[in-house]
Fold this sequence. Notes:
By secondary structure, the chain is of the alpha+beta class. The chain has 29 helices and 30 strands. Helix content is 50%, strand content 16%.
Amino acid sequence: xxxxxxxxxxxxxVSELEQSLKGYRLQNVYNLTSNNRSxxxxxxxxxxxxxxxxxxxxxxxxxxxxxxxxxxxxxFTTKLRKHLKTKRLTNIKQVGDDRIAVLEFSxxxxxxxxxxxxxxxxxxxxxxxxxxSLFRFVDTSGNVQKCQYDVGGTYTMFDKxxxxxxxxxFHNASFNQEMILNWISRSKQADxxxxxxxxxxxxxxxxxxxLSSDLIHISLLQNDVKPSTSCLELLENENLLSTTVRSLNxxxxxxxxxxxxxxxxxTGYILSLKNPLFKNxxxxxxxxxxxxxxxxxxxxxxxxxxxxxxVDTVKGYNKTVDKFFTTLEMxxxxxxxxxxxxNIEKRLQFVKDEHAKKLQALDDVQGLNYRKxxxxxxxxxxxxxxxxxxxxxxxxxxDWKNIEKLIKVEQTRGNEIAKMIxxxxxxxxxxxxxxxxxxxxxxxKSDTDEDDSRWSSDDSDSDSDSDSxxxxxxxxxxxxxxxxxxxxxxxxxxxxxAFANSSRYFDIKKSAKxxxxxxxxxxxxxxxxxxxxxxxxxxxxxxxxxxxxEFKQLRPKYWFEKFFWFISSxxxxxxxxxxxxxxxxxxxxxxxxxTDFLVSNDLENALKVFVKNPYKNKDIPPTTFMQAGxxxxxxxxxxxxxxxxxxxxxxxxxxxxxDFDGTILPSGLLNVSKEKxxxxxxxxxxxxxxxxxxxxxxxxxxxxxxxARDKELELVSFDRGAGYSSKIQELKSMLQKLEDxxxxxxxxxxxxxxxxxxxxxxxxxxxxxxxxxxxxxxPSPSQQTQSKIRGKKNKLKRxxxxxxxxxxxxxxxxxxxxxxxxxxxxxxxxxxxxxxKEINDRMSAAAKKxxxxxxxxxxxxxxxxxxxxxxxxxxxxxxxxxxxNQYAKQISSIENYHINITGLLSSPNKTDKVTDCIPVFxxxxxxxxxxxxxxxxxxxxxxxxxxxxxxxxxxxxxxxLKEEESDWLDSGNLIDLINLQDFMMILTxxxxxxxxxxxxxxxxxxxKNSNSNSSKSKSAKGKGKKK
Length: 1027
């Protein structure tokens, strides 16, 4: 079974990974539960995610399936998270033809090396190719360089020039006869000590290892060359040598053709072998696998296709590898479960067989003792004669050994009584007699009569037979008759009569019968107990299988699932942003001002619900507005306080992001230009339900019905291009104003900086001049009268002579050395410090405002580019002759959301097939048609407990539907695969009270929802204490 990727596999996989993952950020790294060397790498950008499965030394590929992960990361995973989390994957390359792949993060800031040769390894490098961490520490005592696998050492298997080249290496050189002869000569020299001769296939693969061995094998077979032929025959056979060269060149051509195939277009081949545990009397299923995956190849392996081999083809080699390993892991679990069930059945059968043997043994004891008692009565006289004969010898005080010898002598003389005695046990007064079984004797007699008749008929038919031949045949038949005489050995007590001996055997038979009855009763209980234990083991196995097998296929999510959302009872999509950035995203990307509506309320933290209307000639009914209004209130205090208030709605054309002065409003805020339309007060009753995702066939059926109904009602879809054009014009005008503001701000900032520089220079010059004036100007008369201190005049004169030629910088340096600079600065006017602080605050506020303005400019420019690309892609989607790219398909799915949501079934029919289920949090009135729904009201349960209770209600509802033999139920156990963390994310409120299915209150069913009632009673007690 193929378990690891080859060099060719890795080359193709790396090219597909490079095209898909380049530019994505590593969101997180997890340990998988399958083994301790497997990891899950999650890459993402806005609106796109990829999961990569990595097993050290074995495989790396993108997966479309959800994998079970360990709750706690390992030390190596923690190290990867520390360095690589949120880092952008800038490149991924293969090192030549080696089984080494290198992931470059943040333009060479980090490297993650994946080694798939030998035992494999995962190595984290820094920008200088220094090893930061290793998954597996390698013993460097061999030929491996010590620094290559030591933390802190330099990894030398590649350099940074690797990322400057093309990731795919082509081999254009052709093979020739001289090259192969050189290979043979080198192989002969290397194999002299080993005494081993390579086959032709092994020789070619060892010297052209980048070619797949299977590909070489196929080419050799197609050219009528036996791959296992010794390579030495190439020296003797010229035709064989030329044919081998031709085969190698064809193999290289096939290799280059595979590499030249566009990325994602390679067809993968999966080989499956017949499952020996397959039960032919049952249909193939996940529990009864008919075929088990064995190998995968990027080419058709014609040399391995046999009668018991099945070949599946998958387009895209990464998808091939993903399907192979995912199915293989699931089949391994199924096969293990089958083996466990077989072992359990063997255990049960062993218990049954053991008890059956015991009962049969007791039954045999009864039959044997009955026959013994019966034969004693039958041979009563002979047994009495045996007793008397032995007793007489004992009475004569004959030695016991002599008695045995005498009996043997009498047996040789033909004494019939002596012949019946088989052995003596005189110590216990017992003798063993052999009694002929009467039933067997009758059967033997009848057989003898038949033989006599046959002989007589033979005599009548053939008179030529002699009398001697007849006598010989008669003697042989007599010997055969004697040989087939069946006897039973019976122990006789010589101190008791024959009747007493027979009674003893009948008593033994009776006690054996009683023991058999008791054993049968205990056997029934033991088998029943074993069956119960085995059933428990089977349930445990099934439970473990459900926990272990979580390979749920990751479906492509709808664009509105990243927001708060629900579908109204009339089928209108209502979405709300989780934060301010999402509100802006909805307004610019998904809100149509002409047809859509905004619903909200005047309370704090209210949701802004955007009601999507895909038709320009159909109005939204009031019920949808009411449901959207309830949804907007669920995140406010109205939910906790059970307030009854009125939400409002406005048309989309009255909503904008433009402020009254023409600038853009802050993130999350919208401007309503006209009066709001208030709705009637509504009660806060929400609910949780399940929408089931239809498969392709079912979706197409509902889509066709939807399109036919829209055509019948003459509903016209709104032209999205016109809406995009108006928003582009609005954004461009706002962008122009912001750019003008930015330009004027730059001009004013430059003038302010120049003025501040000039003022600072003037201040420094004036301070220096003031100092010089103080030194040069003599004191005034008043000063002289105030300071007539002895020696003062001479002191000032010396200071002038010493410091008169000092400049300002030298003066500050000298004062700093003396420690007086700080005192002089503190004596400055406080007004100067206040002015400088105010100037700094103003400058920081202006810089902050400039940064915010620049962010708005970048955001608006990005939105304009996106909306312009949307209009281009919508036009491209309408043009049938144009090849629509992936982004255009995404735009098309957004535009046709009202068609796509028809594949979300609230109550599927028995003919519908579903692949997944999506939990929904919506107003209770919007869940009327849902097969699975639970009423939610304000309460005390937190989100985690609420979600757990809801899933339990759904599971109970499935059991009820099964007992009622309903037309449709969740037979695929899709509810068990719901991600509880994702379920919690859709809840807009904080605390709940969970009802039962169909809206019944949990308080009415204490047995089914005891946790809710217990929390309710505790809260009631708490309130009583407060009072």
